[in-house]
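Re: the request from the purification team.
They wanted to know what the chain is likely to look like in 3D before they choose a buffer screen. I agreed to run a prediction and write the result into the notebook, where they can find it.
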Amino acid sequence: MAQIHDSMINPRVETLLSKVDSKFTLVSLGAMRARQINAYFGQLVDGTTNNVPPQVTSVARKPLSIAFEEIAADKIVPVRTTPAELVAVETDQAVEGDDAE
């Protein structure tokens, strides 16, 4: 009798795609979070931690695998912003920068 083996990708791609609206969003969200996780582990050596640690307990060693596990566990979710919201944030930051001078 044939056995069904777990895929090499855990969590499964189908599970991850059900958490986001497109493949592009999944790739962008996973890559961004993987960079943050990698920076977090890099800062542990220095003793300074400005980044958020991994939000799931994982046996994975790769930051991208950990990021995908976080997405599957609904710990990381995509947030959509409109161009108008981005302009408002940039304007607020510019005003705060002017006040500091």
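For the purification team: Residues 30 and 67 are 6 Å apart (CA to CA).
Please add any questions underneath this entry.
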